[in-house]
């Protein structure tokens, strides 16, 4: 996953060490399917995310995978569709961006553990760039 994240952030001209990052839940697992009480974990962890997002003034949130994206969109009421990117390979997986009433954007991209963003056909970086560069 790390080379794929580095690929995206290099293309965005951002230093990964300067971008706040966290898992949506603070529990170790080998995958989402093995998480017991996922909704409880998401609910208990959200106040920490909310505090960090608020304190840092984060305007664009990048979510890796549909579960994280759905949860963050729901928590922020980011229901207004902004834009999307569909892979141009055989899978045609889609990444989407939504906006919350307060103007924060939530970008839900294919998980880099499943999609190789270094392949131009699967790279959602242009969508992420557009959301970072949008006027608020």
Key features of this structure:
single chain, alpha+beta, about 140 residues, four-stranded mixed beta sheet, globular
Task: Describe the protein.
The chain is of the alpha+beta class and 136 residues long. It is built from 4 helices and 4 strands. It is globular, with a radius of gyration of 15 Å.
Structure in a nutshell:
The protein is α+β, with helices and mostly antiparallel strands and 136 residues long. The chain has helices spanning 2-11, 38-56, 66-76, 125-133; strands at residues 60-64, 80-86, 94-99, 105-109.
Mean pLDDT: 89
How many strands, which pairing sense, and closed or not: the largest β-sheet? 4 strands, mixed
Question: Count of DSSP helices?
Answer: 4
Low-confidence stretches: none
Amount of helix: 25-40%
Class by SSE composition: alpha+beta
Order of helices and strands: HHEHEEEH
Strand content: 15-25%
Rg value: 15 Å
- Shape summary: globular
End-to-end separation in angstroms reads 30 Å
Widest sheet, order of strands: 1-4-3-2
The strand count comes to: 4
